[in-house]
Amino acid sequence: MLQTNAIDMLREDTLLSASLWVNVALAGLAILVFVYMGRNVETPRARLIWVSTLLVPLVSIASYSALLSGLTIGTLEMPAGHALAGESVLSPWGRYLTWTLSTPMILLALGLLAGTDTAKLFTAITMDIGMCVTGLAAALTTQSYLLRWAFYGISSAFFLVVLYILLAEWPADAVEAGTADIFGTLKVLTVVLWLGYPILWALGTEGLALLDVAVTSWGYSGLDILAKYVFAFLLLRWVAGNEQTVSTAPPAATAAATDD
User: Fold this and answer.
1) 73: which DSSP letter?
2) Left (φ > 0), alpha (ψ -120 to 50) or beta: where does 41 sit?
3) Is the pTM of this model over 0.85?
C-alpha cells in the first residue's frame, strides 16, 4: 500500500477529507457530553455500561485522527475482474481498526443492558471481532477479486451470528432484566444501521465500485455517527435515569436458575 499517494488524494479531495473531520469533531463532542452524562452514575454495572459506551467515541477520535494523518490509509491496485482493475484506489483501512475496537464495546453495553449471560456475551463479541477482521481482509486483498468476495462472505457469516444473538437471544434476556423497552429501541437502531455497512461495502469502491471513494467515505461516516454517537447518547440517557433498574436486574443465567 502506498501511503504517500493516499495522503495526496486526501488533501486534494475536500469532500473526502471532510467525511473524516466531521467524525473527529463529533467524537470529541460526544466524549465531553458522555463524561458529563455519566458523572453521577455510581453502581458497578451501570458504570461498566457507561465506560464501555464512552470508549466508543474515544476509539473513534483516535482512529479518525490516524486516518487524517495518513497512518492508516493507503492506495491499492484493484485486481482483474474489479470494475477499477489496474487502478490505484484509496483504501482507508483504518476504519476496520475502529470497528474492531469500538463495535465490541457497543455489544458489551447492549449485553449488560439486557442482562445476558457470559457465554452469549462472549459469543457476540468474538463473532463481531471475526466479522471486522475478515472484512479488513476483504478490503486489503488485491491478488484475486474472487478472494475479496470470499472474505466478504465469511465476514457476513460472522455478522449473521451477531444478528441472531441481537434478535433472538438478548430480547428475552432484556425482558427478564426489566430493560426490554430501551433494549428494543437500541436493538432496532443497531441492526438497521449495521446492515448498512456490508451493503455500502458491496456498492462502494471496495466492492462493485458503483459509488466513488468520497461518497463511500461519507456513507461510512454517516453510519458511524448514528450507530455510535446517537446510539450511545440514547443508551447513557436511559441508564442515567434508570440506574436502579440496571443495578438490580440479574443476568439472564441467574434469573433462569432462580426460576428453576
Assistant:
1) -
2) beta
3) yes
Closest Cα to residue 28, out of 70, 58, 56?
58
Of residues 195 and 43, the one with the higher pLDDT is: 195
Question: Which residue in this structure is represented by grid cell 466531521?
Answer: 22
Q: Give 158-180 as a DSSP string.
A: HHHHHHHIIIIIHHHHHHHHT-H
Q: What was the pLDDT predicted at 197?
A: 97
The number of beta carbons lying within 10 Å of the beta carbon of residue 157 is: 13
99 CA to centre of own chain: 4
Q: Average pLDDT of 117-146?
A: 96
Neighbours of 41 (CB within 10 A): 20
- Cell matching residue 65: 485522527
Closest CA to 31 of 191, 222, 190, 236: 236
